[in-house]
Write a structure and sequence with these properties.
50% of the residues lie in helices and 18% in strands. The chain has 804 residues and is of the alpha+beta class. The chain has four domains: 184 residues, no CATH class; 208 residues, no CATH class; 153 residues, no CATH class; 213 residues, no CATH class. Strand 14 and strand 15 form a beta hairpin. It is globular and about 100 Å long. Its main location: membrane.
Length: 804
């Protein structure tokens, strides 16, 4: 019996070979897209699954109206509350030092990540290779090395490196190797190639000095919400004390948020640690499900459209006593075989596309997790039930008395089912077109927006070699490097600043109006700049003038603010001139506004311009915040100029370090790369959706028009012209298209309105994507259906009328 069912299935596959190929191709494409997105989602969820006791370890985050939500904490917030509350067993904190060079016994290693930490080994149960991890970082002169770093420094004798000296090149400090540990092989954001003890913790006693990434380990069974509430009350109290001391308004919206360590990759309330883009992943997952539904709709629609060919078969078998259950199982089996073939084709596609997908995401996802195959196999079975049971029930419900008399396909129920399914298919297609066009429009709006600066041919290079023990080391290095760079052929100009365009602001402060200290702004960007900064980036003045380094008053207490700062203080550009400011970075000194610059973007165009105060970098603490230079290059021989800068840099500036640089305009472009990626992904998905929908429409229209060939023959015999016949065959599909597109409008509007809320500067909801989707789908529907309709008008009349 089972063998006969398969024979019948393959006979029908061969008979309807076009629809079979379209079904397999559409399902393969849908499954491939869905599985790629699903694999990425599973990859993101796999971070920190290796951590023992992970269900009790929480990232500490802080939220407030002034600074938003940050994934950093203060030292007292962690240490004092651990001692105060029994629910908290322990805490740890860490800071990532980034790339740097360490050396020992004449050999150097350039590491990509070093961390300063406290008690992290027992906290995360990191595996020991050598030494005593429990006392590895008892003092600030000890250093623990990863096994990989130890091998690079000491070779095969790395296990004997305990007690040897390590020099950290950025500040020249010497450490003693106290332990060697093994970095987790699993997915993790913790990848330190060396660890040292966090310096200066005893002096870090400000509750609102959010400088550390901190974690709590709670006692088993503790409700984290209770701990959040308790620490929030402490933070509110301490902020009120600090606000009273410094004369600013306390932030009553402060809130502490605890995020589980194995959930923080996607669910951190703030920026987390290497946080993934959960919203984009879920959007893509939802859209890939829609594509899969579209593929299933194709399958259901084509199977029900083929009902007329199977009606007499069902009638005969029912008349011979076959049960409805057996018929349902047989027809479902035919669908399952198609799904199974599509499943294997989909994995072949994934193997081909995965390298490109990894490059696009900048990841190394591998198809080596058996759970993916298990879950996808289970999903395939459920999907085949969804896609197969409906047409199976539809076919098995044919009544023998009707099917043995004539053609069931002409019944109202059959037509209604096909039309409803086709409408859903076209609604999804229209939805994708609308969303794709709006996303393109928003990203184009961001890319074409006037940025307020000119960053083309500007090279940014950060200093790697530091010496925190030498007074004004950064200042001296900056001035020396700047002078030498200007002598290099092809260098047009050099400047520097504390907060770099495309990278973002580094320091913020409270700023008050000196004449009325109740008028104040919080979270103002502090901008120590070089004298040529505004001219370097072609940033225009809105009123007043630029800082003049030849005037002592300008360099000592002169300030330039941006337009948004003046506006938020309640002044226009002219009224701001001459006003004096009290600042959080130098409370006993007033800064006088001598100019207002046009607003320009530093962080990216998805966020509003931040109020900012700019001043001479060389008159206060800011002089040691000049950690790099920005170099404007001549248009001629850019590659040669970069080579000359590299040679100078590696010999005179950061000897022994690799030369890393970036272009400022490219850095800025990265600030909306996420949205550019969304645009690309949505465009790809849109193409896939249209391809699947149109192939399904073509196959469906082919089947339905073939069922009407006798009608066409009769009309031609009675004198109907080809245009009339083509219009009669296509108008039903065009009416369905119009209805479907109109129904998609509210769905597209709601989805895009929610997406646009992420942008501070957004386009107004345009009307043309909705009109475009209607026109485009009408044209495509007419083109696809008319191909078969025109062919139908060329039929041989004798063939269809010889028995009439």
């Amino acid at each position: 019996m089972f063998k006969n069912w398969l024979k019948i299935a393959f006979i029908n596959y061969k008979k309807n070979w076009l629809s079979t190929i379209i079904n397999v191709f559409g399902l393969s494409l849908g499954l491939c897209i869905f599985l790629l997105v699903f694999i990425n989602w599973q990859d993101e969820k796999s971070y920190e699954q290796w951590v023992p006791n992970k269900e009790n370890i929480y990232l500490v985050e802080n939220s407030g109206k002034v600074f938003g939500t940050m994934s950093v904490s203060s030292f007292p917030e962690l240490s004092v509350t651990t001692q105060k509350y029994d629910e908290i067993e322990d805490y740890t904190l860490l800071n990532n030092w980034g790339k740097m060079k360490i050396s020992s016994e004449g050999k150097s290693v350039y590491v990509s990540s070093g961390m300063s930490v406290s008690s992290i080994f027992s906290f995360l149960a990191i595996e020991k290779i050598a030494g005593d991890l429990s006392h590895a970082l008892d003092n600030e002169n000890q250093i623990a090395l990863s096994e990989q770093t130890a091998k690079q420094l000491f070779g095969d004798e790395y296990l004997k490196s305990l007690g040897k000296s390590i020099k950290k090149d950025d500040d020249g400090k010497v450490f003693t190797v106290s332990a060697i540990y093994k970095m987790p092989a699993e997915k993790t954001v913790f990848k330190p190639e060396f660890m040292i003890r966090m310096p200066g913790l005893k002096e870090a006693n400000q509750w609102t000095n959010y400088s550390y990434t901190g974690f709590f380990r709670l006692k088993p069974g503790t409700d984290p919400k209770i701990v959040e509430d308790k620490i929030t009350k402490d933070m509110l109290r301490e902020d009120a004390i600090t606000a009273k001391k410094w004369g600013y308004e306390a932030d009553n919206s402060l809130k502490v948020i605890l995020t589980r360590i194995d959930k923080m990759r996607l669910d951190a309330a703030g920026f987390g640690i290497e946080k993934g883009d959960k919203k984009s992943i879920l959007i893509m997952l939802g859209l890939s499900v829609l594509i899969l539904v579209l593929s299933a709709i194709n399958l259901v629609n084509l199977k029900t459209a083929q009902a007329a060919q199977r009606a007499k078969e069902v009638g005969v078998r029912k008349a011979l006593g076959t049960s409805k259950g057996k018929l349902v199982f047989q027809f479902w089996l035919e669908t399952f075989v198609i799904c199974l073939v599509a499943y294997f084709v989909a994995f072949c596609m994934i193997e081909l596309l995965l390298p490109k997908f990894n490059t696009f995401l900048n990841k190394e996802i591998k198809l080596d997790d058996f759970r993916i195959f298990l879950l996808s196999g289970l999903f395939l079975f459920v999907f085949s039930l969804f896609a197969g049971v409906l047409p199976a029930l539809y076919l098995s419900n044919f009544k023998p008395i009707n099917t043995l008399k004539g053609n069931f396909a002409r019944s109202k129920s059959g037509v209604w089912l096909r039309n409803s399914i086709l409408t859903i298919q076209l609604i999804i297609s229209s939805f994708f077109i609308i969303c794709s066009v709006i996303i393109h429009s928003q990203v184009k709006h961001m890319m074409n927006k006037e940025l307020g600066f000119k960053g083309d041919q500007v090279l940014s290079v950060q200093f790697k070699k530091q010496n925190r023990q030498e007074k004004d080391f950064n200042l001296k290095k900056y001035l020396r490097t700047k002078d030498e760079l200007k002598r290099i052929a092809g260098v047009v100009d050099v400047t520097g600043s504390m907060s770099e365009i495309g990278i973002g602001m580094r320091n913020t402060s409270i700023t008050k109006y000196a004449a009325d200290t109740t008028k104040m702004l919080e979270n103002v960007m502090v901008g120590g700049i070089d004298e040529n900064y505004f001219n370097f980036y072609k940033i225009k003045m809105a009123s007043g003038r630029d800082l003049d380094w030849k005037k002592a008053s300008d360099t000592i207490n002169g300030a330039v603010v941006n337009e948004i700062f003046a506006k938020k203080m309640g002044w226009n550009d002219q009224q701001a001139l001459g006003k004096e400011l009290k600042t959080g970075w130098e409370e006993n000194k007033n800064y006088k506004i001598i100019g207002v610059v046009k607003d320009f973007y530093i962080n990216g165009v998805s966020q509003p311009v931040t109020p900012a105060v700019f001043f001479n970098y060389n008159r206060n603490w800011a002089k040691n915040q000049m950690d790099g230079v920005q170099i404007k290059l001549s248009k001629n021989d850019i590659d040669g100029t970069i080579t000359r800068i590299r040679d100078f840099w590696m010999k005179e500036v950061d000897e022994g370090y690799p030369f890393d640089y970036s272009f400022v305009d490219k850095n800025f472009q990265k600030t909306f790369q996420k949205f550019e990626n969304q645009k690309i992904l949505f465009s790809v998905l849109n193409i896939v959706v249209l391809a699947v929908a149109l192939l399904g429409l073509f196959s469906l229209s082919s089947l339905l028009i073939e069922q009407k060939l006798k009608d066409v023959a009769i009309k031609k015999t009675l004198g109907a012209d080809e245009k009339t016949i083509v219009w009669d065959l296509t108008k039903k599909f065009l009416i369905i298209t119009v209805v479907a597109v109109i129904l998609s409008f509210p769905l597209g509007y709601y989805a895009m309105n929610e997406w646009l809320k992420d942008f501070a500067y957004r386009i107004d909801m345009p009307w043309f994507p909705y009109v475009l989707s209607l026109i485009l789908l009408l044209l495509l529907t007419f083109a696809v259906v008319s191909i078969k309709a025109i062919k139908a008008t060329k039929l041989n009349l004798v063939k269809f009328l010889k028995y009439e």
